[in-house]
Each structure stands twice: as structure tokens, then as C-alpha cells.
Design goal:
The structure is a single chain. The protein has 357 residues and is of the alpha/beta class. It has two domains: 128 residues, Enolase-like, domain 1 (2-Layer Sandwich), CATH 3.30.390; 215 residues, TIM Barrel (Alpha-Beta Barrel). Helices cover 40% and strands 20% of the residues. Helix 5 runs parallel beside helix 6. The longest helix has 19 residues.
Length: 357
Amino acid sequence: MKIIAVHAYTVRTKTKHMFIWRKGLIGSDPVTEQTWLRLVTDEGLEGWGRAPRGAIALDLVARRLKPWLLGKDPLMKEVLWHELWEIDRIEEIPMYLMGLVDSALWDLTGKAANLPVYQLLGGYRHQIEAYASTVTYPTTKEYLDVADQCLARGFRAIKLHAWGDARKDAALCRALRKHVGPDIALMYDGSAGFDPYESLYLGRALEDAEYLWYEEPMREFSINAYRRLCEQLDIPVLAAETSDGCHYNVADFIAQGAADMVRTSYHYKGGITGGMRVAHLADSFQLSAEVHGMGVENLHLCLAIRNNHYYETLVMGNPVVFESCIDPHGCVHAPAGPGLGFDVNLKALAKSAVAQL
């Protein structure tokens, strides 16, 4: 099998549900931009991948990726994964684009085998519990209202994205624990908003409130700062979410004692292949590798990885808008079709694209 054509389509849609993050961190854009990658083979199979952004993605595909991919065997994902890292040496490819090609290759492989990707990866489960991952709301009262809606929807786990003020966030976390009781799993995501001193203060509050994990409190530039924080806290620190370098970098976090749990994903860790590398690395140290972010690509990772425990689903608005894939018990089920399970209408996509190649 060979790749005989490479196409890309950028689409822009009005953002349905606007939201904000913590102070200093950009929230949703009025327009959502996404680029689809389409790989066509000489056997008639097609593989699809997707990534955010438009002009950056299209330039990379047209200038570097398309000439490189034409004539390649899409089933040789291992060699292609390493070749892409060679391209990254010069291009400094944005992390959110590193998984674009790899996910399309896995989609093709699943179609060739007539199996969903999670089963090709080994398959660990057919469904997984989801946690409700909040956006940022203006008041504690509204957070508690949102939590009630999540519990009524069947969720038994909630993760907070709060304001980026260590003392206010600590008070919110205590209030949420008191509100939901001891049996609901709670997590907190700092979105890299704090310095080491603020991180320690907030982490101790989370320990007192018996939160399950403490995610990315600081930017992940300093492994030494994370090591000190892990030594000072008992709550598991979840790190290496946006750090560059896939499993090579995650290995340093683990070896230096700078993470009690690590993040993996298709979009920040080099696609499906890179996401699995991080998970297996963490498993060799008996650590969790929690999958970051929603979407069908990350769902396949969740279903394939033993040491991941939840599917992350973003909840927005009030009344809260939930992903349609969440069942009444707060779980997500495996896609049934071959590959990743995208349902792409090519004619409609081409017609709506604001740019394509």
C-alpha cells in the first residue's frame, strides 16, 4: 500500500459555547478553526487526522509533509513517526500538529485491518468513566450549581479549572468538597498559573480536601521546581502535559521525581504512537498516565491504556452543555467502526473549507 495523494482542508465555524479560563490565559475564540488531513492510498483506503489552526497547518502540510508522505507505506508507522521527529528538528513543529499525520496513519491502519484503533493498540476496556472538566465560572455559587448538574448527569468525578488565585482557588476547592461530600472524586487543574510558593499553598489545601490529583500548577519549564513540589506534598502531582519532547521528556520528569502521575494525549505527545509510548513508560514505573483532552483520538487511547482511569470531557455553559457521547451513568463507550471512527462528508468539507490543498 502506498500514499498517492495528500489533502488538507481548513474550516472555520462560529464557536457555539464561549468560555473563559483563569486570569491571564486566553479562553475560547469567537471562531473555531480546524484543519483536516486526508491521506489517500493506491488501494482506495483513506485516513483522516485533524488539528487546530489553519495557516500554520496548511503551510506545514504543503511545504514539508506532503512531499515527504507521497509514495510512503502508511502501515510503516514506526519509521514514519521517527522521520517526523527528524523534520521537527528543523521545523520546530507545534505540539498540537505533531499528532496530525500519526492519527491519520492509525485511521488508515484500522481501516485496513477492519478494526477500531483501540483494539489494534491492544485493547484494555470497551468503556470508561468520564470526569467533568469545568471551564472557569465567576462565582463559587455557580461552580456548585454546575457540580450539581454534573452529578445529576451521572458523573462521579469533577475537575476544576478555577481563577488562578491560589487563596481564592483553595477556598473554592474546600467549598466544592463540602458540597459534594466524600464519595465524589475531585481534581484540580492549575493550568500552569502559579509560582512555586503559590503552588505549595494551594497543594496543601487540596490535600486537606482529599483531592485525587493536582494538575500542572506551574509551567513545565523547570523540572527542579516540580521535583521540590512533589517532595513537599502528599497529593499526587500530575505533570508533563504541555512539555515538549514526548516520552523522552516525560522520562526526565519521572527519573527526577518531578511527577507522581504524567499526562499523555494524541495532540501533545506525538499522536497515537507517542501517546502510547508515554503510557508504557509510566507503567514501567507503576505510575498513572492520564489522557488529557476529549475527542475520539484520545478516547481510543483511554480504551487502550491500562494505567489511565478516566476520559476527560469539557463541560461548558450554564445550563451545562455535555458531550453527546456521555451515557446516563457518566461513561463513554468504544467506537464500533474501523479506524478512529470519523464520519467525514468529503463534499461538504471541501465546500465549506476556507482554504485547502
